Structure formats: C-alpha cells, structure tokens
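Task card 7
Instruction: Convert sequence to structure tokens.
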Amino acid sequence: MGKKEILARMSRDGGITLAQAQKAFASLLRGMRDSLKEGKKINLSGFGSFEVKVREARKGRNPKTGTTIQIPQKKRIKFNPSRSFKNTL
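Output:
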C-alpha cells in the first residue's frame, strides 16, 4: 500500500475530501518527525511505538581491501509493533 492508496482510504473512510486527507496525513508525518527529532517516543495505541535509538561507533572491516575502518555513531528509528497488532498478522 502506497501513499496514494492510504490517502484514498482516509478520504473514503473519513468522509472527507482528498485534499483534506492530504493535509491531515502531512500534518501527522510532520508531527511524528518533529517529535522524533526532539528525542520523544511516539506511542500509537493498537499499532505500535516509534523511538530514536543510537547505534554506537564501532570498528568494521572493508571487505574489498581488508583494512579496519571506524564506523561512526548513527541514529536510527526503531518500531515496536503492539501486541494486538502482531496478533492480527
């Protein structure tokens, strides 16, 4: 399911226009992005939670040359599905 299908379903199920669905969806994504940037955890009851995790710096190896390289620290977004959501799959 892509963005177009999600917007069409929001419009149909919510009884709103496609333009209103686009605004609502954009607002949702913007709010989620801003909250994650601030380091806040997002909980969507019945769906799951999103949070930013930090992967620490570590040593790695270049597979082509075999030399050791330093891999820098990196932030990633972790998603944990809720128990009820997992049980529906």
